[in-house]
């Protein structure tokens, strides 16, 4: 921290090194590879594919709604780059992490569509890693950088849903 209560340029980020989309994608692929009929060249039932597809679509919708708000607000979406402002309108008035929620929903939908219990298990692991490694770091960073503005936002809006 510098004297004017701002983070210096070397520490002006949450310290996240693994991109969350790669985390979720890698984990879902490992799970699907382990026990999905897809990797044996077989399809799952139409009902299962539709149910999972609805979750995937909902997840992508959250990401598509949330991600452009960062550019519009003039801040970075990547957690390893500086955050310049707290976005608390639109979807961010309901969830502090709609993009991570979208990734988790998409992961779950792919697991269901692929008929993979292993991919569902990796979803649990992905959520835990995102919660403890990514979100916890982001919250510490944002509290240090924005103080009461972020604390008030955090008190008003839930972390996931």
Could you walk me through the main structural features you see in this protein, from its secondary elements to its overall organization?
- By secondary structure, the chain is an all-alpha fold.
- The chain contains five helices and no strands.
- The chain has one domain (20-156).
- Helices cover 61% and strands 0% of the residues.
- Helix 1 runs parallel beside helix 3, helix 1 packs antiparallel against helix 4 and helix 4 (117-146) runs antiparallel to helix 5.
Which descriptors would you attach to this protein?
mainly alpha; 161 residues; 0% strand; 5 helices; disordered N terminus
What value does the average pLDDT take?
Answer: 94
Q: What's the N-to-C terminus distance?
A: 32 Å
> What sequence of helices (H) and strands (E) makes up the elements?
HHHHH
Q: How many extended strands? A: 0
Question: Could you give a quick summary of the protein structure above?
Answer:
The chain has helices at residues 20-35, 46-73, 98-113, 117-146, 148-156. It has 161 residues and is mostly helical.
Break the fold down into its secondary structure elements and pairings.
Blueprint: H1 20-35, H2 46-73, H3 98-113, H4 117-146, H5 148-156
Helix pairs in contact: 1-3, 1-4, 2-3, 3-4, 4-5
């Amino acid at each position: 921290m510098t004297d004017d209560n701002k983070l210096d340029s070397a520490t002006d980020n949450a310290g996240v090194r693994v991109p969350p989309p790669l985390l979720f994608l890698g984990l879902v692929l490992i799970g699907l590879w382990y026990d999905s009929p897809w990797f044996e060249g077989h399809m799952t039932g139409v009902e299962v594919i539709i149910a999972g597809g609805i979750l995937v679509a909902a997840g992508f919708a959250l990401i598509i709604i949330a991600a452009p708000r960062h550019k519009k607000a003039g801040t970075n979406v990547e957690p390893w780059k500086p955050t310049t402002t707290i976005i608390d309108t639109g979807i961010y008035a309901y969830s502090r992490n709609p993009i991570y929620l979208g990734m988790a929903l998409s992961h779950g939908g792919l697991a269901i569509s692929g008929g993979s219990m292993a991919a569902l298990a990796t979803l649990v692991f992905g959520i835990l890693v995102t919660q403890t490694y990514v979100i916890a770091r982001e919250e510490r960073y944002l509290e240090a950088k924005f103080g009461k503005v972020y604390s008030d936002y955090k008190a008003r809006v839930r972390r996931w849903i």
